[in-house]
């Protein structure tokens, strides 16, 4: 079997080509972000990232963040969210919970307090429904800081929210008036 280190390497590579740079291995994503599974495997292997359908199935099934999904017939794959390229994921506007959370590193707090949460190079701002996930996300950026997002209030003010296949809440931006530092 393949090592955990190799699985992580392949998963990161899949994130690169399915979220940001499909041209790296000369694959095409359709308008909804889907690409053919067999072509993905073939082009990745040609590029030097060696895996087969069994390994791909394992990565999709066991990825703790559920970053990837297959279509209903399992012949196409896409990233669940986090794209920096224009993709229409087909998610429907949904009413969020009263409070959502956003984890970040301490170094980003001042900027967030000044301009709110911005999607920057991504298609959406990513929010979680639980504080534990937000802390984990924040830890990737240094000392974690968690913001509470007044999501239900935003929704009442006509902001749109979507929930991705892996349970991440998405919105276009979060103005500062809807943010509270978690210790407030």
From TrEMBL:
Keywords linked to the UniProt accession? NAD, Transferase
Summary of the function given for this chain in its UniProt record:
Removes the 2'-phosphate from RNA via an intermediate in which the phosphate is ADP-ribosylated by NAD followed by a presumed transesterification to release the RNA and generate ADP-ribose 1''-2''-cyclic phosphate (APPR>P). May function as an ADP-ribosylase.
Q: Which family does it belong to?
A: Belongs to the KptA/TPT1 family.
List the EC numbers from the record: 2.7.1.-
Q: What class of enzyme is it?
A: transferase
Q: Which organism is it from?
A: Snuella lapsa
Q: What Gene3D superfamilies does its record include?
A: 3.20.170.30, RNA 2'-phosphotransferase, Tpt1/KptA family, N-terminal domain
Indicate the segments annotated as coiled coil, or none if absent: none
Q: Which Pfam families match?
A: PTS_2-RNA
- NCBIfam families the UniProt entry points to: PRK00819.1-4
Q: What is this protein called?
A: Probable RNA 2'-phosphotransferase
